[in-house]
Fold this protein.
Amino acid sequence: MKKKYKHLNQYQRDRIQALKECGHKQKDIANVLEVGESTISREIKRNRRKIRRKDGTINGNYQANIAQHKAYVRRKYAKYQGKKINEDDKLRRYIIKHLKQDWSPDEISGGMRQEKQPFYASKTSIYEWLRSAWGQRYCKYLYSQRYYKRKRSKTKAGKNMIPHRIGLDLRPLGATNRSRYGHYEGDAIVSGKKTGSKAALSVIYERKAKYADIKKIPNLKPESNNKAIINMQNKLSKLRSLTMDNGVENTRHEELNIPTFFCDPYSPWQKGGIENINKQIRRYVPKSSDISQYSHDYVRMIVNRLNNKPRKSLNYKKLIEIMTENKLLKDKYIPINKKSEVALRG
């Protein structure tokens, strides 16, 4: 089990000094104090007494009182941007509340500006606070749940032949440069391979408003995917075009009676908007999941979460606000019941 990072105190530093003087190795000291071995190594290297010799080498014994003073001075004068968050109760509660609603630090920062809150913290300050000893417990609410980015694995696109396929070079200018509303991207999210399930999610994404909708489908057969897209289309006032990949679920695209355009093989970045939405959906539906086990209420909860987040590219307006202001939905949007916020399955 990975140990959480905490600042060492005077008692622990006394133990380090005593154990070192008895000849114990750093690994043994770490086990005694129940901290990571790297914590002990870093502590000894940074906070030991340093004596510079004539030959340029630095050497010195580890002394607990000197180490404690060095750590105190370093923390006192460190450039810690998250400090004001920890000292402002209202600001801290606002950040924690929206982290639990799956907002990113950038969205939280922009939301404060948009709502004209009496307090403010930049996304950098929020990240710094999250990395600190006071905010680390809330890192689990970040999309990555960690401090550093994971390396993205490359996936191959399907090799299915699409009848009467039209490439992106013939797509209307309004769809390409996002100057007009109503141009969508479409994709599917599948169940984990080891589950043996054929269930999937059909996803559409508005390129300018960044609105997304999702429907659960029993399989990737073209008729299942088309039915889901038509169902989602019935909620929209405009659906001028649809950009897809070359998956088997799109082979009967002509039955949709929507102008459809297709990315080049092995080129998912050509519909980058929906790829980003898929990444956000995977927060709720991990790659190893059996999608058949998720209820329709749970899927609607995901849709509600995604469309009620502010976006920097939209001046931190919520996606549903953009859709309603521009009359892109046929019916008035009604948020799902709070009961659906519970992770329902089955």
Summary: The chain has 13 helices and nine strands. Residues 148-160, 334-346 have pLDDT under 50 and may be disordered. The first strand starts at residue 51 and ends at 52. The CA atoms of residues 99 and 141 lie 6 Å apart.
